[in-house]
Amino acid sequence: MKYARLTKEQFEELHQEFINFLATQSITADEWTELKKNNPEAVEQELDIFSDLIWEGVLNNVNFIEHISPQQLMLFRISETHMDLIAIKIDSPEIDITSEYGYKWLQQNIQNDSVNLYTSTKAITEDRNKDIFLLIQQGGHITKGELFTYFSDLLED
What we know:
This protein has seven helices and five strands. By secondary structure, the protein is α+β, with helices and mostly antiparallel strands. It has two domains: 8-60; 64-156, no CATH class. The N and C termini lie far apart (45 Å). Pfam families: DUF6495. This is Histidyl-tRNA synthetase. It comes from Aequorivita ciconiae.
């Protein structure tokens, strides 16, 4: 398995897609029921293959990842060849940028001495999707890139 098995909730959400997947594997509903009873290893394998297919489809379309913690904001823009990072670290423990107040404080105090901004660019390894999946496993969330664009524009001014 290349990524991670989908959760029960994700499988339920993708029920029809899973049925279609089994059909492409020439597995009928009756055969699936029989496999579940008599060949749990084959069932596990099919669940893993389907999970990887779904992850591949999702990861192929990811362009932005955000990882936000109380004192740190890490924003990634991902292309085919490289990853751009805008990292913001707050040196004031009383400011929590995951709260509405803390985020507004950050917007209004971006030049404050307790706000550290870093940018970086890193080449993508030969497996772009694996790089993205690692960021997600570390707590990153797929986004449309509004925060990256906002802070990128601020840095250009």
